């Protein structure tokens, strides 16, 4: 996967079509709906549809292609009207099937929808009826409507991009669905939508959207296809510099990507992980370098580069990452190394932690930027499940208070003192020892005025 430059982001191909063939969930439901008989005559007798509408429906069912060629605008107008005035789920489902058939028959059929909207002078068309159906309490109606909206959006004129917030919110909700098939369909729709650069930032700004995507990866799914699809959407997002600069800070994705790359069996999963990491580093090095170094990405890249890959893009991206990371590591001071490690959250007994000289010279730097690194250590103690990480963090808190004037006061203010004291009863003996030692230093070094 060749990583495009910012100028090339509009020329992104989609590897999977809308609702790809490997998931038959929606297709199977459509087959069942086609087999049902809709009592259109009964609706006409009940004045729910007119006689003319009934005639159009029957004509379309007999020969869709001929009907569309003869009077495409009027048939699309009919279907959109049916969606808005009928309330029964089975009739709405059937109407959606007919509309989807129109779009599937030929890519050019989408123009009928836009031509109709222009004729009516209604800027909410052709989307409004389908957006409303996303709130309908019917799974099939929601899925089919989302598919149709997606198709319309990605084929719309570049100059008339619409507000797709309702669809993005719906997708964010489906990413947390207990039904794996629905999650799969939502991700595939997203792959298609994000092929359009204008939709990337709005989706990224949708509440819980990216958090849900990253959550799928953090669950550790063994489904390689799902991993690929989710990371592909993140790759598309990181083509935008603003997103590439923000993704790690908000969602801590670097360690997730690294673990997936180390364990991946499918080459395409490795390819998209490495390409995403390259996006992040090339577009926002200042924001991502520390996390990549701290999480030992250079070591991982060196290991991966030793394998044989059929895709040359993997080799090229790995070489880029290795070169950039190696240059940065070579220029790191001891403090830079320590800062990168803390920011990564992956603490270990590297030399800076054990050097008294290091702490004499650098303890006060934990106060910089409103105690940024000190707060990070506190957060690590509160959230980490690793005994090694907790032991090192507790040790560092002790060294900080030993060598930093007013250190005890700062620890009290951010709540770290209480967190360290709680570690004194931890199950791991080294964690207990480091916590006890840190607390002793806290008690020994009184407040400095």
UniProtKB/TrEMBL annotation:
Keyword Transport set for record:
yes
Q: Which GO terms describe its molecular function?
A: proton-transporting ATPase activity, rotational mechanism
Q: Which Gene3D superfamilies match?
A: Leucine-rich Repeat Variant, V-type ATPase, subunit H, C-terminal domain
Q: Among its keywords, does the record have Transport?
A: yes
Top-level taxon of origin: Eukaryota
In this chain the ATPase V1 complex subunit H C-terminal domain maps to: 331-447
Keywords (A to Z) from UniProt:
Hydrogen ion transport, Ion transport, Transport
The record, for SUPFAM superfamilies, names: ARM repeat (SSF48371)
Q: What's a GO cellular component annotated to this UniProt protein?
A: fungal-type vacuole membrane
Ranges in coiled-coil conformation: none
Q: What's this protein's family per the entry?
A: Belongs to the V-ATPase H subunit family.
Function (record text): Subunit of the V1 complex of vacuolar(H+)-ATPase (V-ATPase), a multisubunit enzyme composed of a peripheral complex (V1) that hydrolyzes ATP and a membrane integral complex (V0) that translocates protons. V-ATPase is responsible for acidifying and maintaining the pH of intracellular compartments.
On assembly, the entry states: V-ATPase is a heteromultimeric enzyme made up of two complexes: the ATP-hydrolytic V1 complex and the proton translocation V0 complex.
Q: What is this protein called?
A: V-type proton ATPase subunit H
């Amino acid at each position: 996967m060749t990583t495009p430059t910012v100028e090339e982001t509009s020329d992104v191909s989609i590897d999977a079509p809308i609702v790809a063939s490997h998931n038959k969930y929606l297709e199977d439901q459509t087959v069942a709906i086609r087999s049902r008989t809709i009592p259109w005559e009964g609706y006409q007798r009940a004045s729910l549809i007119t006689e003319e509408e009934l005639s159009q429906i029957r004509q379309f069912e007999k020969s869709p292609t001929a009907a569309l060629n003869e009077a495409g605008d009027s048939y699309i107008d009919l279907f959109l009207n049916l969606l808005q005035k009928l309330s029964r789920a089975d009739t709405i489902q059937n109407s959606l099937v007919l509309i989807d058939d129109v779009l599937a028959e030929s890519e050019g059929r989408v123009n009928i929808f836009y031509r109709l909207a222009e004729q009516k002078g209604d800027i909410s068309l052709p989307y409004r009826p389908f957006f409303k159906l996303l709130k309908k309490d019917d799974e099939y109606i929601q899925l089919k409507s989302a598919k149709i909206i997606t198709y319309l959006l990605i084929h719309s004129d570049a100059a008339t991009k619409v507000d797709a917030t309702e669809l993005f919110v719906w997708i964010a909700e489906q990413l947390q669905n207990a039904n794996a098939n629905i999650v799969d369909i939502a991700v595939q729709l997203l792959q298609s939508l994000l092929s359009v650069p204008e939709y990337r930032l709005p989706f990224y700004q949708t509440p819980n959207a990216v958090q849900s995507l990253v959550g799928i990866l953090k669950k550790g799914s063994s489904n390689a296809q799902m991993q690929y699809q989710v990371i592909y959407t993140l790759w598309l997002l990181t083509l935008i510099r603003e997103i590439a600069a923000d993704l790690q800070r908000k969602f801590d994705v670097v360690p997730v990507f690294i673990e997936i790359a180390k364990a991946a069996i499918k080459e395409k999963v490795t390819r998209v992980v490495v390409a995403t990491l390259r996006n992040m580093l090339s577009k926002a090095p200042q924001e991502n370098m520390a996390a990549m170094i701290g999480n030992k990405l250079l070591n991982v890249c060196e290991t991966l580069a030793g394998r044989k890959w059929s895709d040359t893009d993997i080799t090229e991206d790995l070489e880029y990452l290795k070169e950039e990371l190696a240059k940065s590591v070579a220029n790191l001071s001891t403090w830079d190394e320590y800062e990168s490690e803390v920011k990564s959250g992956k603490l270990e007994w590297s030399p800076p932690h054990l050097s008294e000289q290091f702490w004499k010279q650098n303890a006060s730097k934990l106060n910089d930027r409103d105690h940024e690194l000190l707060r990070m250590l506190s957060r690590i103690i509160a959230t980490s499940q690793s005994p090694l990480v907790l032991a090192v963090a507790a040790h560092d808190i002790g060294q900080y208070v030993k060598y930093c004037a007013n250190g005890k006061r700062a620890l009290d203010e951010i709540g770290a003192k209480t967190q360290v004291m709680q570690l004194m009863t931890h199950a791991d003996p080294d964690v207990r020892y480091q916590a006890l030692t840190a607390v002793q230093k806290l008690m020994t070094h009184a407040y400095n005025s």
